[in-house]
Amino acid sequence: MTETSGRIQRHRTADAVVDLTLDGEPVAGREVVLEQTRHRFLFGCIGFDLIDHANGTAADPAAAARNADLWEGVFNFATLPFYWGRFEHERGKPDTERTLKAARWFADRGHPVKGHPLAWHTVTADWLLDLDNEEIARAQVDRIRRESQDFAGVIDMWDVINEVVIMPIFDKYDNGITRLCRDIGRIPMVRLVFDAAREANPNATLLLNDFDMSAAYECLIEGVLEAGIKIDALGLQSHMHQGYWGEEKTEAILDRFSRYGLPIHFTETTLLSGEIMPPEIVDLNDYQVDSWPSTPEGEARQADEIERHYRTLLAHPAVEAATYWGMNDAGMWLGAPGGLVRADGTPKPSYDRLHHLVNTEWGTPPTTLATDAEGRLRFNGFLGDYRVTCDGRRAEFTLDAPGDASLTAALA
Amino acid sequence: MTETSGRIQRHRTADAVVDLTLDGEPVAGREVVLEQTRHRFLFGCIGFDLIDHANGTAADPAAAARNADLWEGVFNFATLPFYWGRFEHERGKPDTERTLKAARWFADRGHPVKGHPLAWHTVTADWLLDLDNEEIARAQVDRIRRESQDFAGVIDMWDVINEVVIMPIFDKYDNGITRLCRDIGRIPMVRLVFDAAREANPNATLLLNDFDMSAAYECLIEGVLEAGIKIDALGLQSHMHQGYWGEEKTEAILDRFSRYGLPIHFTETTLLSGEIMPPEIVDLNDYQVDSWPSTPEGEARQADEIERHYRTLLAHPAVEAATYWGMNDAGMWLGAPGGLVRADGTPKPSYDRLHHLVNTEWGTPPTTLATDAEGRLRFNGFLGDYRVTCDGRRAEFTLDAPGDASLTAALA
Question: Which of A329-338, B158-167, B402-411 has the lowest average pLDDT?
């Protein structure tokens, strides 16, 4: 077992002893079928592509249904878009209904949903430019309250604010959020939006999210925590359009950002199956190409990198979620070949690799096991939900902490 | 007048009307000699080279005296070294006496002195490694109290803490200050050292100083201010071994760091008169060369850049001080030709250029002027102290704010 596998084993699995009963009697010396039905770890992906599917408005319903199957074949956690400039392009006309229907589609299938983002200077509402800073602050707070309440119970996790490090000094174009943040400062900005989100949905998990992995984000986090603002999880983006970070860099980042004792979400991971973006590009949005194809060599490399990246994340106990930023090449940000599925809907090697990791190496597909003479089922499994069946009867249980787990389960 | 000159004029000079009297009578229609004796702007330089001179221990007293004359020809503000690993190489044996004598030498000549630094992870005391973190914190606080009190009245300005952005993640070598900062966090570290310095010398001007001009330093500052820690001035280093920043970058930095309403000190400026360090060097300390000569072309370039840099700084109202990091090439950090004076003691063009700016363009060398019929002397002058003489009688006055100034001065 490699050192990484050992850490994954230690942090992500339990050695379970399940006392299995049927009508109050131990199920001794019997063959049963064990299956993991859900991972505790959040294997996330954006669900933008499935909004039409969920709303029954997909242009190609059959293709959309295949996409949905592929999505659920690997992922158990969705991120849905709340970019203000699109969600409420015209003031007072939020895209609530359609988004809520999509969120319910995921939630009804047991997949938690995160909204992204409630505050950001990019793709923000143009109409903020007509307001003064006090009015912008009020509109921002009102917007957060509205979405938090409208989606509560369906979406209880939010990227509350995105990219605060650059927010007040963002100089690509004028926008209301940069104006406000520059005026009141980063920490008061974070306080404003977190207070609004917390108050509107006290049950929500609230994230601070950034792409800046430098000491700047550390300094921001330390200032925010020192100011007494409660952050539930730290979001670290990881768009690797300029090349896979490698284990060493990823581990160094985990080392630095786990110092705060907060859960870490890798919120936005991209790995390419085509040419890598040149290193001199600073703002990824500046890279515009006519065609950016997925290549066989690129696909082989991407599959290896996906595996290495996810192994590194699972080996670190602070990481609770990893969201891949787009299953499909079709419609991908910048036109980059970052999907796990080609534009024609066929899975790349990276899809198969991740599928194997999630469902086979780290999961428990239906597996026949025998109980012992006392009716005990012993196995090592990844944290999450399980189902055990025997003669058409079934029981469910959950492994929710690493280490030794003693449980009882009654077949019904 | 250029736009920069206009701003320098607006922020740095006063239109003075001085009612000049002699024995209570207006000195009407007389010729007088006006001279600026001190700039309000702090034209600083390190005074490390003059410690031996001040202590009478210079190896070449005549050369040291020439150096002292050159220093005072341009500068009015000294920075003296308090690197813990040198100042108290052996625990309990601080280099107080010698440093205090040097500080007095400057102070007696009217030049304020700043101590640099009270807390830093580089060149810190090796013996901290034998202590646990609580003991390191106590030693750091004790050290700050001791220096603050021992030098109070002579040194009333301190770079309290240096390079906090990188401090807890500095990984070149193990040291006690990084250990402590990593343990308690950046903001508690700043609070620890500022509280100690403030309490030990409530009259001191206390600086936070960093080389990191990115958003990281902004985030640190915002966190520190939000935490209620009082910073008297922000120190921005500007070692330009990799090339002059240019007006645009310098102005952008001033724009970003002046948002906090705090005075800004350019604490450590270096501009080379030789080859520029390659851009791929990240930690300047990594660049080691056998010989790094000053060249004629380099000296011409340096003189121009010095002028442009100082003009940019004086044109921004937030800047109160600019400290050049070494008048002499001899003994310069990294062996770089960053001095204004060559290793052989002869001034470079940059020295002459800065001398001209400080003393002639921005200063008032002894100048004959006439009072009007009411005994009024009218002139535009840079903020600072002035002396006016007439028939062997003299008066002194100070211009301490830009704009119109009405003063009275009685010749005595």
Answer: A329-338
- The answer to whether residues B318 and B377 belong to one domain is no
Of A185, A217, A256, the CB nearest to B222: A185
Domain encompassing residue A170 = 41-361
Segment B374-402 shows an average pLDDT of 97
Query: Mutate which of A166, A226, A249, A253 to test chain B, going by most B C-beta atoms within 10 A?
Result: A226
**Domain shared by A296 and A390, yes or no:** no
Say whether both A45 and A33 belong to one domain: no
Classify residue B81 as exposed, middle or buried by CB count within 10 Å of its CB (0-12, 13-18, 19+).
middle
Asked if A74 and A9 sit in the same domain, the reply is no
Could you tell me if A94 and A187 lie in one domain? yes
B233 forms beta bridges with: B207
Do residues B136 and B146 touch, judged by C-beta distance below 8 A? no
Opening angle at CA A303, ends A301 and A304, nearest 5: 65
d(CA B396, CA B412): 9
Q: What percent of chain A has pLDDT over 90?
A: 95
Residue A345 phi/psi, 5° resolution? 90, 0
ipTM score for this prediction: 0.91
Strand-pair partners of B59: none
Alpha carbon distance B210, A152 (integer Å): 44
**Partner B contacted by A186 (CB < 8 A):** yes
pTM given for the model? 0.94
| Preceding omega of A117 cis (within 30 degrees of 0) | yes
Q: How many whole angstroms separate alpha carbon A196 and alpha carbon A201?
A: 9
| Cβ distance of B215 and A169 shorter than 8 Å | yes
Q: How far apart are CA B48 and CA B86, in angstroms?
A: 13
Residue A322 sits at φ, ψ, to 5 deg, of: -140, 115
Those of residues 133-172 in B touching chain A at CB distance below 8 A are 165-166, 168-169
